[in-house]
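Protocol step 4 of 6: record predicted structures for both targets in the notebook before any analysis. Target 1:
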Amino acid sequence: RKFPQAHPLAVTSVSFARDATQVLSTSFDQTARIHGLKSGKTLKEFRGHTSFVNCGLYAKDNTNHILTGSSDGTVKVWDIRSTECLFTFRPGSALASMSSSL
């Protein structure tokens, strides 16, 4: 499937949901987006980083959260349902202890 309106700038990563119905993409446009694989449409958009979003993934144990890493030096945890940022970490902070629970 093609996603012609996925992002206005280059895509930096993609990650498939466990149920294979959606794909998470990140971009130079400072956003992460979830797209429906059947519809090809953007379903959710996550804004809050201040530089390129380099990577994104679905949390292992909770399908209602995604994580993004950015060139702004932060990792963010997002609620998929509300698109709100729940936590922001800088590498070397509490991230190491948090990663084992996600």
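Target 2:
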Amino acid sequence: PLLATLHRVKQGTISILSRSIMIKQLLQKIPGGQNVQAFVGTSILIGLCAIPVFAKDTKTGHDLFSQEKPQAIVDSESKLRKDYMDTKKERQQQQQQ
């Protein structure tokens, strides 16, 4: 079992190294210096990490890390606010009479 585990670890390390070499070769094809290549690579990585944030198919406020209120709550709050303002106006009219 130990040899099999070491073999799997070795294969995993080789695949990581081959990906690393492939990424390095792609970045070296970008014209410009090393700073430009690092900027482009970092920008692509940040863009890829942002895809789940902007491509979500859930409703507002229903995903795991959302800081927004769900639309149902926003609607109910606006309805309550409207009802409160209507009753306030009615009370003012009754007091004036």
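Step 5 preliminary note on target 2. DSSP finds three helices and no strands in the chain. The mean pLDDT is 80.
Proceed to step 6 after PI sign-off.
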